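Running log. JK asked me to keep both predictions on one page so they can be read side by side. First protein, sequence followed by its tokens:
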Amino acid sequence: KVESVTNGIHLATWDHIPKNTTLLAAHTENKRKLLEVIKKQTGLEWQENELLIGWARRIVRYKRPLAIFGEIERLMDLVEAENRPIRLIMSGFAHQRDSEGKALMQAVQSMIEKHVPTTAVYLPEYTMELAGLLTSGCDVWLNTPAVGFEACGTSGMKACLNGVLPCTTRDGWIAEVDLTGIGWLLNNEAIHDSILDVLEEEIVP
């Protein structure tokens, strides 16, 4: 008999909220550090009041790294709105023997370079240090796995630990949580439209 198991994260490693500091103050500082890294690596100087959406993890098909690019024209209109700008940060890695994962990684980079070069970035070299910055400095953590394939979802655990709000399909540990008031659920069967609907109608407002 096989029981289901949800892995966890090592809290002391991934908690970037100093003691005696408010969550908002800590998040603002973490966001500032992340923006400095983005400026250093890409030359883009984004502002602290701009909404940062993060997606970073091992790149495989079932995690659907291209989900947010499914309706590219609509995405471009949304992220480029002057009154409510959105910035997208993506990162990750593919196993050295995973040719499909490598192709997906290149496709993500190509979509950013071609369509949203000033409002989205792909940060290479997805290290533990960068993962820590992303999961503590983004405002919203985007999680798009096809339901039934994600075992745990540890990047989302790291983000939530640091006050970053989840926008996710109901898979992995998310299936065990009521996100009402603390995050947003995506429609697994209509992932492309669902991401943009939730952004436009709920998160951005």
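And the second, directly underneath as requested:
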Amino acid sequence: MHDLLSGLFSYPFIQRALIAGTLVALCSALLGVSLVLKRYSMIGDGLSHVGFGAMAVAMALGAAPLAVVILAAFFLLRLSRGSRLAGDSAIALVSSGALAIGVVATSLSSGSNVDVMNYLFGSILTMTAADVKLAVLLSLAVLLLFLLLY
């Protein structure tokens, strides 16, 4: 068993995936408690659905996918704050609509289904050293902001 693990972790792509996955898990655990306490427990699910819908529309229109997803995320948070509905209820309503829009946009545009899936579900094993450095910097920023704004 020891030989198997030492052999497995001798590959640089496994080391990079382990570092990045650990950092994402730590940041998620740290922020998850605060989101639940602020009644935003559905934000991860909502942003994934909104992200899929925005990504599908952006790919169908030939727009920059990341910019559309970021705008959609800000819209989702703004809507849940200004609504009479509780945070999770507004997020659930918007995420259902965004998922439906994404499915329609993907089915109407020919050939963009593969591109949408590649953007959404890349592989952690294909991360480069620069990607890991970015993940480390972003994780440190999340930790610092969490400590300062807690």
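Observation for JK regarding the second prediction: Residues 131 and 137 are 10 Å apart (CA to CA).
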